[in-house]
Specification:
Elements: H1 3-14, E1 26-30, E2 36-40, E3 45-51, E4 70-72, E5 88-90, E6 96-100, E7 102-103, E8 106-107, E9 115-119, E10 122-126, E11 132-138, E12 140-141, E13 149-153, E14 156-158, E15 167-169, E16 174-178, E17 197-199, E18 202-204, H2 212-222, H3 225-231, E19 247-252, E20 261-268, E21 274-276, E22 283-286, E23 292-294, E24 304-305, H4 306-323
Antiparallel strand pairs: 1-2, 2-3, 4-5, 5-6, 6-9, 7-8, 9-10, 10-11, 12-13, 13-16, 14-15, 17-18, 19-20, 20-21, 20-22, 22-23, 23-24
Length: 332
């Protein structure tokens, strides 16, 4: 993944619309030996300069820090045991909140409102404010997808073949599936609903529930058949009618300082499973008044109304179809 994409994805988690941005201005600074810290506009040190300097992330120290959570890598944390953390997450007052889980050469991404952290060599989950929502209790756990995460104890992370994308050794593991409260889910012998999830040859119960207003938001996107048609226009294989229909779920609801519903698109697979589409084009935020926006990478500065975005998205898909007359999933 490109560094620019990593940084924008980190911003999805860190750049919450919160009162933190309205507090005193704080800035990154370098020590004489090129270690990174944080200070306020009066020169008071908020976070000591004991961290590696990553110039790809900080290119103008004259600009105030806008993030509500500040992630830095202390020199002393470089050789910690597995599961590996990515440094430390601080609040704007310099308090250590948690140690982010190391994923894809950086701190774990926010997925469906939660990201992974490390504590006592176990992994758990925090929310976008750095609050520990699910206790660190597993040797490894996946990000959440469709409201479900896969966890294991007795598993090990094997870096011997690939240090960037290590193998997960499950030979002596006990595995679980958990919901977003950390509760273990019981597998079903068969689907009780078409919305249940098929995973690893078992079925798990549908995890989403909505009040009437939330259901209306979902219906607003589900009813836009053009989204699915445009998305699948460049798929190289022919799809069934069901596979060609995206559906949408609210994966994060409004909370303090973050007044948006986050809506992800999911595609259906012929084996009965639902997969979140991790595509910045298909990330939507909705307000309490029912307005829906497409928000690439969660960057609110680039939000676009659903109507305007869909017009642009349709036009791009039609250009592709014009250039590829043999595309199997054409639409009128």
């Amino acid at each position: 993944m490109k560094y620019t994409s990593i940084l924008v994805l980190i911003c999805t988690m860190l750049c919450s619309v919160s009162s933190a941005q309205e507090q005193r201005k704080i800035f990154y600074f370098l020590s004489p030996d090129s270690l990174l810290g944080v200070k306020d506009s009066q020169g008071n040190i908020i976070i000591p300069a004991i961290h590696y300097f990553l110039p790809i992330a900080y290119d103008d120290f004259s600009l105030p820090i806008q993030d509500s959570i500040i992630m830095l890598v202390p020199k002393r944390s470089h050789h910690l045991k597995d599961p590996k953390p990515y440094g430390l997450a601080y609040d704007r007052n310099g308090k250590v909140l948690y140690a982010p889980y190391l994923f894809d050469n950086g701190p774990d991404y926010l997925e469906e409102g939660l990201s992974r952290y490390v504590e006592n060599n176990k992994i758990g989950f925090v929310n976008r404010y750095g609050e520990k929502i699910i206790k660190a209790q597993w040797d490894w756990v996946s990000p959440f997808e469709y409201g479900i995460a896969r966890a294991c104890n007795g598993c090990t992370i094997d870096y011997s073949q690939d240090t960037e994308h290590p193998r997960l050794d499950m030979s002596n593991a006990s595995t679980f599936y958990i919901d977003k409260k950390g509760r273990i889910l019981q597998a079903l012998p068969e689907k009780s609903s078409e919305q249940d999830q098929a995973i690893d040859r078992v079925y798990l119960p549908y995890q989403f529930s909505y009040n009437p207003f939330e259901a209306k938001l979902i219906k607003k996107l589900d009813s836009q058949a053009l989204i699915s048609k445009a998305y699948f226009a460049n798929y190289y294989n022919r799809l069934t009618e069901r596979e060609k229909n995206l559906h949408f779920e609210i994966v994060e609801k409004p909370s303090k300082g973050f007044p948006y519903y986050v809506i992800n698109a999911f595609r259906y697979d012929a084996n009965g499973s639902y997969h979140r589409i991790d595509n910045p084009d298909l990330l939507f935020y909705a307000t309490g008044s029912g307005d829906v926006y497409q928000v690439p990478y969660g960057n609110l500065a680039e939000k676009m109304s659903l109507k305007e975005w869909l017009s642009n998205y349709d036009a791009a898909a039609r250009r592709y179809l014009k250039e590829h007359p043999d595309a199997p999933n054409r639409y009128q």
